[in-house]
Write a structure and sequence with these properties.
295 residues, alpha/beta, 8-stranded parallel barrel, 10 strands, globular
């Protein structure tokens, strides 16, 4: 059956030597996923192995054999960079890193690159938003022959993070010249922790669309939260074990407006192992059970 008729559910998968993308896709398939997200190198570092070593051709063959689609493979940029920083040299460094990530995303054949917008370091919120938009415009200009969409992730609002409010992301988008190259990645844990009410999904997206056209929503990070609404702490929890709750998260999977959007789990591991397989099974069956007690 064509998996476009099903929900698009996957998880964050490690990328490691020696088989890189081949091992990543096989791991995701073993969890029952039909989507996945990877960093093309360590999340906390800009060090990257040569793109030619990632086994892209073998990876694409496995995708085809398993009826996957490249649109459902999400790339995440390293989170050490800060496009909002008022320090010009640090912004240039961030521009170079993200430009390289866009090129690597295109080489893999993926369409969406998720980035953290940035932190207002040594600047006001408004200056940070301006810095982010100017950086993204430059990145897009440097990669104008590519079609990769840069997706701004919703943030929890801890410290000086930008993007905890839909209005802030809308202000960035408004300053982007080529709006075909910009999108949104909505993280359920982050928006809960930033203060949004996830118990009424229709009201939530009504608020979203008052600020950002729905067509900009490209990816959902599906995570429960260890924290109460508005805590601004950003601590992910396994599905159904947190303050958001299983049924509220299920709405983000099966709501008619969201059915064709890729959902990615970034939930905690137990005993040094992910429990994505069990979480994906629960989501598909629409039934929660106590996974952790039975591990």
């Amino acid at each position: 059956m064509n998996n476009r008729l099903n929900i698009k559910i996957g998880c964050h998968i490690r990328l490691k030597a020696p088989n890189y993308l081949v091992d990543s896709i096989n791991e995701a398939i073993s969890y029952g996923a039909n989507a996945m997200m990877i960093y093309t190198g360590p999340p906390q570092s800009s060090i990257r192995v040569n793109i030619n070593k990632l086994k892209i051709n073998e990876f694409r063959k496995i995708l085809d054999e398993n009826n996957w689609f490249l649109d459902d493979v999400i790339i995440h940029a390293p989170y050490i960079i800060n496009l909002a920083n008022n320090d010009i040299k640090k912004r240039k460094y961030a521009i170079d890193i993200i430009t390289n990530e866009v090129k690597r995303t295109a080489a893999i054949g993926a369409k969406h690159l998720v980035i953290h917008p940035g932190n207002a370091v040594n600047c006001s919120l408004q200056e940070g938003i301006k810095n982010i938009s100017e950086c993204i415009n430059e990145i897009i200009d440097k990669t104008k022959d590519l079609k990769v969409i840069i997706c701004l992730e919703t943030m929890s609002g801890k410290g000086t993070e930008i993007g905890a409010k839909f209005e802030e992301l809308a202000n960035i988008i408004n300053l982007i010249i080529n709006k075909n190259r910009i999108g949104i990645c909505l993280d359920t844990c982050h928006i809960n922790d930033s203060g949004y009410d996830l118990t009424n999904i229709d009201n939530l997206f009504k608020h979203f669309e008052q600020n950002i056209p729905f067509s900009y929503l490209k990816v959902i990070h599906l995570n429960d939260s260890k924290n109460i609404k508005g805590s601004k702490k950003d601590r992910h929890e396994n599905i159904g074990y947190g303050t958001i709750g299983f049924n509220n998260l299920l709405n983000f999977v099966y709501h008619p407006k969201l059915i064709n959007i890729v959902k990615i789990l970034e939930t905690p591991w137990y005993d040094n192992q992910p429990i994505y397989k069990q979480e994906i099974k629960m989501i598909k069956e629409k039934k929660w059970w106590d996974i952790i007690s039975n591990l």
